[in-house]
Amino acid sequence: MYNISYNLVGLVFLIVLTIYFFKIPIFPNRSNTVFRAILVLSCLSIGLDISTAVIVNNSENYSIAMQYVSNTVFFLVYWPLAFFFLHYTILLTKRENLINSKVNLVLNSLMVIEMIIIALSPLFHTIFYIDPVGGYTHGFLYVPIAILNVIIVFSAGLLVLINRRSFTIMQRTAIPMYILILCVANIVQVYYPFVYVTGAALALSTFIMFLTLQNPNIYYDSLTMVFSRESLEDYLSKLVHKKEKFQIIIVDVVNTTNINRTLGERAGSEIISQTAKKIKSSCPNNLIFRLEGDAFVIFTKSEERRDKLIEKFKKQFPFNYKIDTTQITVHVHLNYSETLSKFESTAEAIGVIQDCAKSSKENKISLINESSLDEIKRIRSVEKALQRAIDEKDFCVYIQPIYNTTTGLFEKAEALVRIKDDELGLIMPNEFIEIAEKNRMIKFLTPVVIEQVCKFIHSVSFPSTFKAISINLSVIDCLDENLDKFILSMIDKYEIDPSRLIFEITETVASLAPQVTITMKSLQKHGVKFALDDFGSGYANIDAVVKLPFNIIKIDRELVLLLHDVRYKVMLEGLVKIMLNLDYDIIVEGIETEEQAGVLDGMGAHVHQGYLYSRPVPMDVFTRVINDNATIKL
Ligand code: C2E
Ligand code: CA
Ligand code: CA
Fold first, then answer.
1. Cβ(269)–Cβ(347) below 8 Å
2. Are 605 and 586 in contact (CB under 8 A)?
3. Cα 416 to middle of ligand 1, angstroms
4. In this structure, which residue's CA is closest to atom 13 in ligand 1?
5. Does the structure show a pLDDT above 70 at 363?
6. Pick from 368, 391, 416: which residue ends a domain?
7. 421 CA from centroid of ligand 3 (Å)
8. Domain-terminating residue out of 216, 250, 268
9. How many domains, the chain?
10. How far is it, in rounded angstroms, from Cα 526 to Cα 495?
11. Tens digits of per-residue pLDDT, 177-228?
């Protein structure tokens, strides 16, 4: 007597699971689609396994045609499952080169050939035939095709073994488990042909896969229940690969940082989830992702649809939100894009979207178009050039001479770094220093500049009238407790007179790294000097001048440009007097005209840096310039 009860239980269980999986909102990526197919095929297989068992075991009650149909359909559904399983495993590797390779084409072709061979069974007895006497009998291709299926299933296991790192521990366990359970069930089936367990085993192994691999929650952001950042990457990789066109809207909550700080993180989270709700209610049919923190990305299929959505958002935001008794107005910044399609990789697309979100300004609506994309791409390529320059210690240090109007001599100079890049040409520091500070690469840049300048001072014989070269330090450099040791080691290595070096720091250092005083004093003991850079740009901070032990104050070009206004002129004159009284040396930056030079000279500021005297020049040119200047003056 045959027993189908295990398979029946498995079937009921798997049907419930399948219904559940179809009901919950599932992220529309390829692996989820394939998993859906696996669920449906598995349900059908178990169902057909049960019905064929009934038919085969009661063959006298069923016509031969009926037996052929039920067996053919069973094989047509059950055997291709192996291919879906392998395909699914390939997708889990997340390796684009593997997913989109020719392997898929080969697999699909094999599957189609297998299905044709199965479908031909009733005519040519390929997989099985119904013997009028013996009933169901295996056909001549049964064993070869069964072996092919086993190979396909085991290939999935092999794939996991080879690409271990691409899988999570759960995935690494679940896939071999799937194979093992099916193997055991098939062996049991051979020994107990009348106990049908393969269907139950299929249900069990599929369930384990569901629990460990196909956890739909990973696609969701738990706070807002919109799609997560991982899903965004997944989705973008598909769009980028297919070069599909799309538009995005970025909704960025403006004041969460302040809200977190003043009302606590719970309030901040509440506002983010309320914002997500507002967005969802405006566009229930669009894909919405949480980019990071308080920014959301919405994809639209046409520019008209995008414009309509923006109109809706404008009506919805800002909105008032009440936390306890506090009324908060939630502002958002909207960034929307033209039709985009020209990304070379998923990483680039994600980077661009992230940069757009970061560039948000309060309550503004701005368009991401080709030119803003170009800007972002430029930043990325500058970043790459910077990384290369750091790796190869390949910076170009230019030097700008500083002129003393009373002696007519170049007495100091400032080292100004540039990057020479094969593709981008000469990149100026205004473009890359900010980037280097943001990603902390400046830590690797400054030592290279310091070493190059020390080496230069060592290798050149300067005229006796030339005093020192200054080097710029950023806040991050000044936070380093070992900065003085490094500088002293360079002075030692190149055997230079420490008084040949000046370090320039801006007032932000004074507020962000007040401990720099220790470094300054330790180096000043050896004769190294310090200059306060950019004095008068932005907020002139008297505090910075007084707090830190500067030797020199560099008056910024911005102040020089304001000299035509008599009030600024009077103020600067006063400042110069005070500084001279306090024994500071003064350097004035950005002198471009004789007129500016004359005015500053009149105030008693005689040391000038500017295009009027010389632009920053390469080291060899610099040596020539100061030697020529000294010779002429002699
Ligand atoms: P900075 O320290 O204020 O340097 C002076 C800048 O003004 C230089 O620009 C110089 O070329 C420019 N300049 C000099 N005279 C004139 C003039 O008469 N007119 C005008 N319009 N500009 C003049 P550069 O070389 O592009 O450097 C820009 C900034 O990049 C520097 O401003 C400095 O903050 C930063 N920087 C340059 N090299 C380094 C470095 O090695 N390390 C760090 N941390 N920052 C650096
Ligand atoms: Ca400077
Ligand atoms: Ca400056």
1. no
2. yes
3. 6
4. 590
5. no
6. 368
7. 25
8. 216
9. 3
10. 13
11. 999 999 999 899 889 888 889 999 999 999 998 887 766 667 888 888 899 8
